[in-house]
Write a structure and sequence with these properties.
There is one protein chain. The chain has helices at 7-23, 30-44, 49-64, 71-88, 94-111, 118-134, 140-158, 164-184, 188-206, 215-234, 239-254, 263-281, 286-306, 313-334, 337-356, 360-376, 380-394, 399-414. It is mainly α. The termini are far apart. The mean pLDDT is 94.
Length: 415
């Protein structure tokens, strides 16, 4: 919900509406109360979110009490209450509030049937799609399939509308739904098909969301396209082509974000670019591989700048770890021992946080690669220390991996 009014204007409007409600005949209050609820909703986007959402809910509850409400007004009230509970889900009791949101949206549909109120019906269907897509109650696949059905119902009507932003939102919702199904699926072919559908809908949305008028929606759509193409490459499907596509879309999204204004979005995109360049380097020949690894290094360094460890420890650790792996692969190409020292430094920085967060598998992997780096430098003593630590950490998690590390240690001891 977007409106170019400032907080003071909205607070002034609240006072005006309250005065009108107090001076108005009881039988004519529902429209004013609904308007008051909408103003509180707008205020909730600017300040005192929870307080203003509660005020909005109270206003719509009062509007609902009016006896002479038409079906149109009842549908409007229920749809608004659904939206309020959906927004409350971002503050507390996520699943409980989303389920309450769904209950009100479904009630709204009874008052705004498709035949009588097609575009209002489509709006509520779109809202239901968003609600089911956000629900995390252990039935994610079932919920996502319901979301798709609601988005499709909305799309079938909105195609006839001139409101392109509504179409953009629906296509984006369908893109996210199929991306979610792809993340859930364990079957490679099914996962690939879901990703291709996701790309289709995100591409449709990208025709509507342009950076000049809808910068945030544009950036999110471009970022999601980057995720989809990267995921296709991970499945081994046209790796080079899809990784280059992911890089293009991540760069498009990055045009919108800066490290000062949006550090999380900026840092995440830099991180994703680093991974895509790294993976692209691994499918290219020597000269291009070296170039891609250098690009991966630069983007991962920028992600580290955006993720100070005191504020974003886990994101910092992931970036440091992957930068270490980039140096490891760069050493395999360039044979420069300074790259091994850089690898060790990065992995040790990441390891501190992995251990603090009790991320055992990441800790074991880091220890192993540190040991491997020391071994490549012919530092047998330190190599053994870190290999043993890796074996110790991974033993309760995976005996086969622990045995493999133990075999490496035996071979080193023979030298």
């Amino acid at each position: 919900m977007k409106l170019n009014v400032d907080t003071l204007d909205l607070e002034k409007k609240v006072k005006e509406l309250k005065n009108e409600i107090n001076n108005k005949d009881k039988q004519d209050k529902s429209g004013l109360l609904a308007a008051l609820g909408n103003v509180y909703l707008l205020l909730s986007e600017r300040k005192n979110t929870k307080e203003n959402l509660i005020n909005a809910l109270s206003a719509f509850n009062e509007a609902e009490k009016e006896r002479k409400n038409s079906d149109d007004m009842r549908g409007t009230i229920e749809n608004a209450k659904g939206f309020i509970f959906f927004k409350m889900s971002f503050l507390e009791n996520k699943n409980e509030n989303i389920k309450e949101s769904i209950r009100h949206y479904e009630k709204a549909l009874k008052f705004r049937p498709k035949e009588k109120f097609p575009y209002k019906y489509a709006t509520t269907k779109f809202n239901l799609g968003n609600a089911y897509l956000s629900l995390r109650d252990g039935r994610e696949k079932e919920n996502t399939l319901k979301a798709i059905k609601h988005f499709e119902d909305s799309l079938s009507i909105e195609k006839e509308s001139k409101d392109s932003l509504e179409l953009g939102g629906i296509n984006n919702g369908l893109g996210l739904s199929y991306l979610t199904l792809a993340e859930i699926s364990q079957d490679k072919e099914e996962k690939a098909n879901f990703l291709k559908k996701s790309i289709y809908y995100f591409s449709e949305a990208s025709q509507i969301f342009i950076p000049q008028s809808e910068p945030e929606d544009y950036a999110l759509t471009q970022s999601n396209l980057g995720v989809c193409f990267s995921a296709l490459a991970e499945l081994g499907i046209e790796k080079e082509k899809n990784l280059r596509a992911s890089i293009e879309h991540y760069k498009n999204a990055l045009k919108i974000y800066t490290i000062d204004e949006s550090p999380l979005d900026y840092g995440t995109l830099q991180y994703n670019l680093g991974l895509s360049y790294h993976n692209l380097g691994n499918v290219l020949a020597y000269i291009e591989k070296k170039e891609m690894l250098h690009s991966a290094e630069e983007h991962l360094k920028r992600s580290i700048e955006a993720f100070p460890p005191d504020k974003y420890p886990e994101a910092f650790a992931r970036s440091k770890y992957n930068l270490g792996i980039v140096y490891r692969d760069a050493y395999a190409v360039e044979k420069d021992k300074d790259l091994l020292l850089k690898e060790i430094d990065c992995l040790k920085d990441a390891l501190k946080i992995f251990k603090e967060k009790k991320n055992l598998f990441a800790s074991a992997t880091s220890e192993f690669y540190i040991g491997q780096a020391f071994y490549s430098m012919k530092d047998k003593e330190n190599a053994v220390i870190h290999y043993k630590e890796a074996e110790k950490i991974v033993a309760p998690l995976n005996k086969e991996i622990a045995n493999n590390i133990h075999s490496i240690l035996k071979e080193i001891e023979k030298l």
